Amino acid sequence: MGGLVADADPVSAIAAALEPSGLVPRGWFVTEPGLAPLLSDGASARAICLVGHFGGGFWPVFKAWWQNHPGLSEPLDSWSRAVIDPVTATLGCEAVYPSDRPWYPFQQWAMAAEGLKASPLGMLVHPEFGLWHGYRGAMLMDEFALERLGNRAPSGPPVAMHPCEGCAEKPCLSACPVNAFTGSGFAAADCRRFLASEAGLSTCMDVGCQARDACPVGRRHRYSADQVRFHMAAFGG
Ligand code: B12
Ligand code: SF4
Ligand code: SF4
């Protein structure tokens, strides 16, 4: 674990190792026996540390990297692996990613690690960053890596306040032009159909999901126009 082992505060050391990328350790938790993913040696992961971003902190770093790696079909996933895998290796952990199949329950992990709760849109809402945050990977730790992390108390869940509880009008629920958020889930097919239409191309595909944008929480952390277009192209394309 090199410099990270010697550090008095290993979680801060992970943060320092990720810092040039704009990614951050989002929090970690000790897993329940039998409910964690298996490591390559067949044992259950003992703890999981999520890696992600608040606002668009990583965007300029990713964009610069992407310019030097043209032609990738999933550039953000590739960059995430290029950043997270080396940090994970120095810790003696294993990394998994949101796009890995079968899908890992990243949002359930985030609720355990950070105490965040789901908004009516399905995305988890953060009291400070609102809907403007995401997850790029997770570090799975064995017993040994957990010990080397100092066996310190898990970081979460530190966030007690759930913004949606005090949000009487819930503007996120009435902003979608095709009412894709029905209360019984996300009508992804209706959304996609709209995104492919002329009206969708000149609205959501250009300036982002109007439902996400209607939330008043964390607006100053809203993604830049080109980051919004990138995510919409990845979803709607
Ligand atoms: C499949 C998927 C989708 C599908 C289907 C979503 C659905 N109806 O379930 C589609 C393609 C539609 C989708 C869309 C989006 N997604 Co998505 N998606 C995923 C993915 C890859 C798997 C979800 C899953 O089934 N996991 C397996 C189950 C077992 O895990 P889970 O934690 O229990 O899953 C929870 C979610 O399914 C959630 N859920 C249920 N309904 C919905 C609806 C929406 C819209 C979302 C976001 C979540 C959600 O409830 C489950 C229980 O907590 C996750 C990454 C991951 N590996 O989890 C991202 C993820 C959930 N998506 C995410 C995001 C940001 C989006 C988009 C906003 C992308 C964008 N455009 O920028 C859009 C939202 C729609 C929009 N109009 O913009 C983020 C959410 C971050 C957060 N703040 O919570 C995740 C975690 C990816 C990431 N890298 O951070 N997504
Ligand atoms: S608009 Fe209100 S209900 Fe919707 S996500 Fe934001 S805080 Fe929650
Ligand atoms: S992207 Fe547009 S159509 Fe899709 S859910 Fe958001 S507001 Fe609705």
β-strand percent reads 5-15%
Dominant shape: globular
Enumerate the distinct ligands. Answer: cobalamin, iron/sulfur cluster
Task: Tell me the series of helices and strands, N- to C-terminal.
Answer: HHEEHHEHEEEHHHHHH
Largest sheet: 4 strands, antiparallel
Rounded radius of gyration (Å): 19 Å
Tally the helices: what do you get?
11
Question: If you average the pLDDT, what whole number results?
Answer: 89
Strand order of the largest sheet: 1-2-6-3
How far from one another are the termini?
40 Å
Helix vs. strand class = alpha+beta
Number of strands: 6
Low-confidence stretches: 1-8
Q: How many structural domains are formed by the residues?
A: 2
Binned, the helix content reads: 25-40%
Question: What's the SSE blueprint?
Answer:
Layout: H1 3-6, H2 10-18, E1 24-30, E2 47-54, H3 59-67, H4 75-91, E3 94-96, H5 106-114, E4 117-118, E5 124-125, E6 133-141, H6 143-148, H7 188-196, H8 198-202, H9 204-207, H10 210-214, H11 225-236
Antiparallel strand pairs: 1-2, 2-6, 3-6, 4-5
Cobalamin (B12) binds at residues 98, 103-108, 118, 121-124, 133-135, 185-186, 188, 191, 209, 231-232, 235.
